[in-house]
Structure prediction request, 341 residues.
Amino acid sequence: MLRRTFLTSAASPALAARAAPGARLGVDLFSVRSQGWSPFEALDYCARWKAQVVHFSEIRFIGSLEEEHLRKVHEHARRLGIEIEIGMRSICPSSKAFDAAQGTAEQQLERMIRAAVTVGSPIVRAFLGTSADRTGPIPMERHIENTVKVLRAVRSRVAGAGLKIAIENHSGDLQARELKTLIEGAGKDFVGACIDSGNPLWALEDPHLTLETLAPYCVTSHVRDSAVWRVKEGVAVAWVRTGEGNVGIADWIRRFTELCPGRALSMEVIVTGPRTFAVFEPKFWEAYRNTPAWEFSRFLALAERGSPKAPDPPVAKEQARRKERDDFEASVQYTARLLGA
Prediction:
């Protein structure tokens, strides 16, 4: 099989050598989702940046769940000295994000458990849904109950494989206290948290609160910086290159290495324009009626201190792919310098 040789715009830092004690630098391949790479090409690229863990957060990134293909991916990663983590999408049957065409949630999880064993992944990452599940006829509490039922149904299979299911606080679906409830309801012996540092802002949550709440359950992570600020309509949130936000990502990363030693600190770099949350409109709060005021006040304090972040200008498709790599590489360099300090 022919594979590309990857050249970067800057010399790749030796992340493994420079990382702080307890830190394992990883890459969530969603960071380079537009590149169109095979799993082998993606692993080669991550190896140039001295990644210790590569997180295939969705099936599309690993290409196929056929056993022979997975063995080849595992062997390639082993030769590069990289540990693989794999993941899937929604496992909540009542979520708007759930794909019933792929089988029941239990069937989808069972396929992923087998795949995780084949590639040597200690976890299967999954999520409940998105912020869209906070509104509609089914309350979030019911979605959580439905997800817990699914997880309990596969408990023996997960335990038998020696794995953990890592549930992410994903795309504004769950606040940290809600994810904690889900994990404890299913069983923290086989379910843990994939802590995302960017998604809390889409759930009106200070990412430092998210880390404080979920650190005892952490099995892996997605690390991304954010900018948040006040606007006339309420609060605006944008995801930015690591180090260019205003949520204290440097302190978040340092604290993660202290609270979650040995867990992968995996970069999931996404750069977006602002998303506005109309937090001063009564109707907006129908999706967040159970949010304690003391939690929201921490989020609002971040916004009050923040400054507007101008969106990047639109670019052509090929330029967008190059920018995606540039955003990722700049973020990795910032993180390497931070952990090497």
